Amino acid sequence: MGTLLLIRHGQSQWNLENRFTGWTDVPLTERGKQDAAAAGLFLQKKGFRFDRAFTSRLIRAHQTLDEILAAVGQKDIPVLHDSALNERHYGDLQGLNKAEMTQKYGADQVQLWRRGWAGRPPNGESHEDCERRVKPFFLQYLLPFVTKGESVIVAAHGNSLRPMIKYLEEMEPDATAALEIGLCTPYVYTFEGEKLTKQEVLDVPGIVTKGASLTETKVNEGRV
Fold this sequence. Notes:
By secondary structure, the protein is α/β, with parallel strands linked by helices. The chain is 42% helix and 15% strand.
């Protein structure tokens, strides 16, 4: 039996500030680190053990994985970092506040950039573009370990996890783009050989699942 666990990073500083982050290398907040550790302790109590890990080249994903592996007592397992798992590139929007961009360009345009399957931010990637780099990596370098019976954890980003979930759950493009993936929320897929036999989303008590949850009265739209 193989297990694949997908988890989005914890709250980053720009999540908290409601900014488009993309490939900007922004670290976790202290709350983000605490939530990643809490997710790790939750997984440890559930009996999860991992054979290997994958993550992006961005620090918020590294830090999340480090906290989880420390909590489950598995800091020495093999870890592969690859830019194929990086967050979607938000182009000219990176570093800009989402609420301010909504005021400037309108809610419909910002929603199209964020949640339209083929909508590209200026000089950035669409969800479709992101899938073109994530899916081949997932199928060639990651999924084979799971179908051979290993337990694999992937700590990455909402927009680089979406193509994997789309493939695993056979989702349509528009539904994939609209999918909300909570911070530090484990998505678990169980395989018997190459057959997916079970899928579930685990609820980690007490964590911040929305990026700007601590400052929603100031930044309006908290989900990132």
